[in-house]
């Protein structure tokens, strides 16, 4: 009887740790660090942008809404200033050639386009479909997550961005 009870508690502890390990990040949580690799094949990490508001959006060449969104986000970043807002657009389930083509087409924007061929970033952020956007505050914590949004959410997204941009830079940070 004691062995059965001990096994039950061991399984309970195991499952609770597995459940905690697979909990996806949400509002208030530290943002997962890895954001893919840039066109120069360098790792891109959230902590490299500490002090800025970071918008992480997942896109694919087959997602018409995503391709429409990227130039809009580039304009928002330009208006806010790249020293205040960094948009990171991570290719989702795309091969490297498609990533390169989109990167070439958007080369005149200041978007930071990354690829994630091993799906490490999308897994860390819990992405199972697109569009998927995560807004990260200046402190490196997730502020807002939007999944499956469209044009009807623009006012909400703009309001959230304005709130994040109005927040002060943390004292331990030197924004570039």
Automatic annotation (TrEMBL):
Signal peptide as annotated in the record = 1-21
UniProt keyword Disulfide bond, yes or no: yes
**Gene Ontology MF, one:** disulfide oxidoreductase activity
> Thioredoxin domain: from which residue to which, for each copy?
25-166
Cellular compartments annotated = Cell envelope
Q: Which UniProt keywords apply?
A: Cytochrome c-type biogenesis, Disulfide bond, Redox-active center, Signal
One Pfam assignment: Redoxin
Keyword check for Signal, yes or no.
Answer: yes
Q: Which GO terms describe its cellular component?
A: cell envelope
Which GO BP terms sit in this record?
A: cytochrome complex assembly
Name the residues that span the membrane.
Answer: none
Q: Which PANTHER family does the protein's record reference?
A: THIOL:DISULFIDE INTERCHANGE PROTEIN DSBE
The name this protein carries in UniProt is TlpA family protein disulfide reductase
């Amino acid at each position: 009887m004691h062995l059965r009870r001990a096994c039950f508690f061991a399984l309970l502890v195991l499952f609770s740790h597995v459940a905690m390990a697979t909990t996806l990040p949400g509002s208030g949580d530290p943002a997962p660090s890895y954001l893919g690799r840039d066109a120069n094949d360098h790792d891109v990490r959230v902590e490299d942008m500490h002090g800025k508001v970071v918008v992480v959006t997942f896109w694919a060449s087959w997602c018409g809404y995503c391709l429409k969104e990227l130039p809009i986000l580039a304009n928002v970043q330009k208006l806010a200033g790249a020293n205040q807002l960094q948009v990171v657009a991570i290719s989702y389930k795309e091969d490297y050639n498609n990533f390169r083509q989109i990167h070439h087409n958007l080369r005149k924007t200041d978007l930071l386009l990354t690829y994630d061929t091993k799906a490490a970033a999308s897994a860390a952020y819990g992405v199972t479909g697109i569009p998927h956007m995560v807004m990260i505050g200046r402190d490196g914590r997730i502020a807002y997550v939007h999944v499956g949004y469209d044009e009807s959410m623009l006012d909400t997204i703009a309001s959230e961005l304005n709130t994040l941009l109005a927040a002060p830079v943390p004292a331990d940070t030197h924004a570039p």
